[in-house]
Amino acid sequence: MTLSLFDQFASPTLFGISLIALALTLPWILFPKPTTRWLNNRLLTLQGWFIIRFTQQIFQPINLGGHKWATVLTSLMLFLITLNMLGLIPYTFTPTTQLSVNMALAVPLWLATVMIGMRNQPTHALGHLLPEGTPTPLIPILIVIETISLFIRPLALGVRLTANLTAGHLLIQLISTAAFILFPLMPMVALLTTILLFLLTLLEVAVAMIQAYVFVLLLSLYLQENV
Fold first, then answer.
1. Using CA atoms, how far apart are residues 100 and 51, in angstroms rounded to an integer?
2. Which residues pair with 13 in a beta bridge?
3. Does 220 map to a domain?
4. Domain count along the chain
5. Residue 4 domain-assigned?
6. Positive or negative: CA dihedral 79, 82, 85, 87
7. Measured between alpha carbons, how far is 4 from 13 in angstroms, rounded to an integer?
8. 8 Å CB contact between 184 and 129
9. Average pLDDT, stretch 143-171?
10. CA-CA distance, 156 to 149, in Å (whole number)?
11. Where would I find the beta strands (DSSP E) of the chain?
C-alpha cells in the first residue's frame, strides 16, 4: 500500500528513458500563440490580461532596475501554474512534485538575485547579515544565523512547493481509493466521500495556483532586497 501511494511521484519512463523532459516541455506547447490579426480571440485576451495584471502586481514595489526580470518571472509563473494544473488530471505526472526540479528552478534564480546585490551594492547586500543596533556580543552569532537563513531560502522555496503538491496528491488518492472501496459496501458513505473528493479537488486547484504565485512572489522579494 505504501509503495502504491508514492508510485504516482515516480518519473515516467519509456524503454528505460525518462520522460520528465517531455513533461516539462508540454506546457509551452499548450499556450496560445499571438496572431497577426487586429483583434485577438477570448483566450489570448484573457492570457494577456492575466500577464499584465500579474506583472504590475509583482513589479510595482521594485525599482526600474529590477523590471528586467519581468519576462523571466512571468514566464516562470505561467510555467509553474500550468505544470501544477496539468498534474491534477488523472493518470498524469507532475514534475513539480520532484524536489530536484523545484531546486533546479529555485537555486539559480536565488543565486542570481544574490549576485546582483553583491555586484551593484555590496555594502547594502552584506548589511542584511547584521541588523542595525545589534549589541556587540551578539554580532558573531547573528552573522552566522543570518548567513544560514540566507542559504536556506532556495531550499525553503523548493521544499514548500514540493510538500504542498505532494500532500494534496496523496490526499486525493487516499480519498478516491476510499470512495471506490466503499461504493459497493456503503453507497451513502461513498457518495459523501465523493463530495469530499470534489471539494478537495477544488482546493487543490487553488493550491496549485497559490503555490506558483508564492514561489514567484518570494523570488521577487529577494530581488527587491538586492536591486
1. 27
2. 18
3. yes
4. 1
5. no
6. negative
7. 17
8. no
9. 90
10. 10
11. 13-14, 17-18
- pLDDT tens, 163-200? 999 988 889 888 988 888 888 888 898 899 999 999 99
Domain encompassing residue 86: 15-226
Rg of the chain taking only CA atoms, in angstroms: 22
pTM of the model: 0.84
- At which residue does the C-alpha cell 515516467 appear? 12
CA–CA separation, 84 and 42 (whole Å): 23
Asked if the structure places residue 196 within a domain, the reply is: yes
Instruction: Dump pLDDT digits (tens) for 74-92.
Output: 889 988 998 888 888 887 7
Cα dihedral sign for 109, 111, 117, 119?
negative
User: CB under 8 Å to 118, separation ≥6 — which residues?
Assistant: 125, 126, 226
Query: Cell 544574490, residue?
Result: 114
How distant is the alpha carbon of residue 128 from its chain centre? 26
- The residue assigned the cell 499571438 is 34
Supply 69's cell numbers: 526580470
For residue 31, the 8-state DSSP code is: S
Q: Coil, helix or strand for 150?
A: helix
Exposure of 199 by Cβ count < 10 A (0-12 exposed, 13-18 middle, 19+ buried)? exposed
What is the average pLDDT value for the chain, to the nearest integer? 84
| 222: in domain | yes
Residue 143 banded pLDDT, cuts 50, 70, 90: confident
Q: Residue 2's pLDDT is what?
A: 47
Query: Looking up cell 496539468, which residue turns up?
Result: 86
